[in-house]
Design a protein that fits this description.
Helix 6 packs across helix 7. The strands form 3 sheets. An 8-stranded parallel barrel has the order 7-8-9-10-11-12-13-14, surrounded by 6 helices. It has a 4-stranded antiparallel β-sheet with strand order 2-3-1-4. The protein has a two-stranded antiparallel ribbon with strand order 5-6. Helix 4 links the parallel strand 8 and strand 9. By secondary structure, it is an alpha/beta fold. Helix content is 36%, strand content 18%. Bound molecules: phosphoenolpyruvate (PEP) and manganese (II) ion (MN). The site of phosphoenolpyruvate has 9 residues, from loops.
């Protein structure tokens, strides 16, 4: 049960309050200044609400995920970066290469992204690769390049962190931390980004149900961070004609069940360059709050995910079509 408090409780009042709650077979699971999350026998508690003058509105949440539940924040969460951000009413595109490969490459792509009015640049520097022989990213050197492009082009930067040991250093440079599909249930990493408070793009695990996924987001929120952006990036199914199966059902379900912004990643969702635009449009039509798209100045030479990276020309085509589609949801590109 979520409880809105009429007043801030001092630590002593909270202790007394918890003691009283336990008499009604309820426990405090989580608290912020103005809200509490309780578990227990709500019937008993509700019958005795008069004994708790500090209680305001109460609402029972039956799903396992509580803090990321739509009922916790019915109006939807806004993740702001100055005068723009991710929200129910806006639409944002994050674009950039799968991986930062060189100064020349990331500068060319950043310049293009900026020229198209896009505000968020992606670029992996610590890459989770299936093969240890594949390009693993430029690591610290790549992070320095991200710092340089951020400064030069005034773009918001997003990059993946694979383990908590790198979180401090990466957070000093970037605006959004990406937690990749393979790490969706890396609970110590979720705890670390939760405590850090920095905006997080949490990608759906490739074999995670929507409930598993929202429970991972719940870990981040539980540790103090509500600045979470969800991202459908495709799941593993028996289908082999595309890299993953982009589960757009999940977008509509997550929008209903959670207050967090939801993006679609048609690049990893399809793994096929020619399929990225149609699935980006489908994701935009079904109510996503934005897209994350891999682009490259020379996709055929890319060191990772070239086969699913759009050329600049294709990205222009995507932009003009997406602008038309998002009107149906009363959204416009920020
Ligand atoms: C990526 O964004 O490049 C990436 C590795 O994504 P995912 O974790 O969804 O595979
Ligand atoms: Mn990639």
């Amino acid at each position: 049960m979520i409880v809105e408090l009429n007043k801030n409780l001092s630590p002593a009042e909270t202790n007394e309050f918890c003691r009283k709650l336990s008499e009604y077979k309820c426990n405090l699971l989580w608290k912020s200044d103005k809200r509490l999350l309780l578990e227990g026998d709500f019937d008993l508690l509700t019958r005795n609400l008069k004994n708790f003058p500090e209680f305001g509105r109460t609402e029972v949440i039956s799903e396992k995920y509580k803090l990321v539940n739509r009922k916790f924040n019915p109006g939807g969460t806004e993740i702001k970066f100055g005068d723009f951000g991710f929200s129910e009413d806006s639409f944002n595109i994050i674009a950039g290469p799968c991986a930062v490969e060189s100064r020349e490459q990331i500068f060319k792509i950043a310049e293009f992204v900026k020229s198209r009015g896009i505000k968020f640049l992606r670029g992996g520097v610590f890459k989770p690769r299936t093969s240890p022989y594949a390009f693993q990213g430029l690591k610290e050197e790549g992070l320095k390049l991200l710092a340089e492009v951020k400064e030069k082009f005034d773009l918001k930067i997003i990059t993946e962190v694979m383990d908590a040991s790198r979180l401090e250093a990466v957070s000093e440079v970037v605006d959004i931390i990406q937690i990749g599909s393979r790490n969706m249930q890396n609970f110590s990493l979720l705890e670390a980004v939760g405590k850090k408070g920095i905006p997080v793009l949490l990608k759906r695990g490739m074999a995670a149900t929507v409930e598993d996924y929202l429970m991972s987001a719940e870990h981040i929120a539980y540790h103090g961070n509500q600045n979470i952006i969800l991202c459908e990036r495709g799941i593993k199914t028996f289908e082999t004609s595309s890299r993953n199966t982009l589960d757009l059902n999940s977008v509509t379900i997550m929008k209903e069940k959670s207050h967090l912004p939801v993006l679609v990643d048609p690049s990893h969702g399809t793994g096929i360059r020619d399929k990225v635009i149609p699935m980006a449009l489908a994701g935009s039509a079904c109510g996503a709050d934005g897209l994350i798209i891999e682009i490259h100045n020379e996709p055929e030479k890319a060191l990772s995910d070239g086969q699913q990276s759009l050329t600049f020309e294709m990205f222009d085509a995507l932009l003009s079509k997406v602008k038309q589609v998002i009107c149906v949801n009363n959204k416009s590109l920020s």
